[in-house]
Design a protein that fits this description.
The protein is an all-alpha fold. It has helices at residues 25-55, 59-86, 89-113, 118-146, 152-181, 184-203, 221-233, 236-267, 271-294, 302-312, 317-322, 326-354, 360-372, 375-385, 391-413, 415-421. The longest helix has 32 residues, at 236-267. Its main location: membrane.
């Protein structure tokens, strides 16, 4: 069995550490396709919200659509991980892009003809969630097979910059301006076109040499899944980070994804544009955090730093819940973005450095499954909850609870001792 260390490594070039992966052609094509796709996803996040509000200006309807997205993702992410360890990761990603393009194109067509309904949006959200469930494990398993191990931090840093800039900044801002000046169906048409461009770039890539050979003694999918679960259960830093993430998502994601659009709409003029720009500040902050971490060696206390970023970094959500000042809300979301981006780059690198290559797809899918298990629950309850509890109280809880969860996780997993016993510099 070979590993990612067998990849031919060109001589080091001068320049930023974060730019090193661009010396590989396959990586350049892959990250270009991923960048276009992420930009489309960023636009879609706003187009979807504004389209639902245009059809039915009610938080419960948006909760329904967002819940379908979450259910699709969570229900299939384990299957996606098993597929990533057994099938061609490149083929999986290409198939996902075909599904994304077709689904959003149908929404655009229905919207432009006046035939679009909330249930259409719910079905589309579920399909896109299922597609995402296959994309993330396949991408995570593919990256170590086209890059040397010592460039994974840089590659994760590039994605950590590209994803927030396009998904949380440029994409939402562009969608807010476009939909605010026209109508949601046009925004959906543009998103479908972007997915199509990403598909063409993926088709230009070539399949990497198979670097992991499936064990013939372990032919059943359930055996694969059981091995992945067992690995997570006996790895404290991994287990407790996933438990933290699952509760973090329950407390934080619903308020951000479901309630924030209504907070912005109620407190600011030109709600569509303002919502896009609020998300943009989060995206810019995430890019700054990702770039800061990936441009230098991994922190010696990498687990402690990661948990501090996610725990303490949630505190500004309390400000988001009470402020009617755009600069204050923008600054709060920027800080949240910085800490989120830095933590995610460290986390992605840990999975790729400390998990065996032949198990990375399964562990990545378990990561998404466990950490997102409560996402549809958060989406489903926060809309109705906002009718009986003030949004200020909900955002205050979202800011404070993760701090407590992070302290518990660090202590229970013995993370401070673990990171010293397993240095990754």
């Amino acid at each position: 069995m070979s590993t990612q260390h067998d990849i031919a490594q060109p001589a080091d070039a001068a320049g930023w550490r974060v730019l090193a992966p661009f010396r590989f052609r396959e990586y350049r094509l892959l990250i270009a396709a991923v960048s276009v796709t992420i930009f489309a996803e960023g636009m879609w996040a706003v187009v979807m919200v504004l389209q639902v509000i245009a059809l039915d200006n009610n938080p419960t309807s948006l909760s329904l659509v967002a819940t379908c997205l979450g259910v699709g993702l969570v229900a299939f992410v384990l299957v996606g991980g098993l597929a990533a360890d057994r099938l061609s990761q490149r083929s999986i990603i290409i198939t996902v892009e075909v599904v994304n393009t077709a689904t959003v194109a149908v929404v655009a067509l229905l919207g432009s003809t006046g035939a679009l309904r909330i249930w259409h949006m719910a079905v589309a959200a579920a399909v896109l969630g299922i597609a995402a469930a296959f994309f993330f494990p396949a991408y995570s398993a593919l990256l170590p097979r086209i890059l040397p191990a010592d460039q994974l931090l840089a590659a994760n840093g590039v994605e950590g910059v590209v994803r927030p800039v396009f998904q949380r900044a440029v994409g939402p801002a562009a969608a807010g301006v476009l939909v605010g000046a026209t109508f949601p169906a046009l925004g959906a048409a543009v998103v479908a076109g972007l997915f199509g461009v990403g598909l063409l770039l993926l088709l230009a890539t070539t399949a990497p040499a198979r670097t992991v050979v499936a064990d013939p003694r372990r032919p059943h999918l359930l055996d694969d899944l059981r091995d992945g679960v067992a690995f997570v259960a006996r790895t404290p830093w991994l287990l407790w980070t996933l438990l933290f993430a699952s509760l973090f998502v329950l407390v934080v994601l619903g308020p951000i994804e479901v309630l924030l659009p209504f907070v912005v709409q109620d407190r600011f003029t030109h709600g569509a544009q303002t919502y896009g720009f609020v998300l943009a500040f989060f995206g810019v902050g995430s890019a700054v955090g990702a770039l800061s971490v990936s441009s230098r060696p991994l922190p010696r206390r990498y687990l402690s730093v990661m948990m501090a970023m996610w725990g303490v970094g949630s505190l500004p959500l309390a400000i988001v819940g009470v402020t009617s000042s755009f600069p204050a809300m923008a600054a709060a979301t920027f800080v949240i973005g910085v800490t989120d981006g830095a933590g995610m780059v460290i986390w992605g690198t840990l999975l790729q450095r400390r998990v065996r290559a032949e198990m990375l797809g399964r562990v990545s899918s378990l990561d998404f499954f466990v950490s997102l298990a409560f996402m549809p629950v958060s989406f489903a309850i926060v809309g109705p909850l906002s009718n009986v509890v003030s949004m200020e109280t909900i955002f205050l809880a979202a800011g404070l609870v993760p701090v407590v969860l992070a302290v518990v996780a660090v202590a229970a997993a013995g993370m401070r001792a673990d990171e010293l016993a397993h240095p990754l510099r």
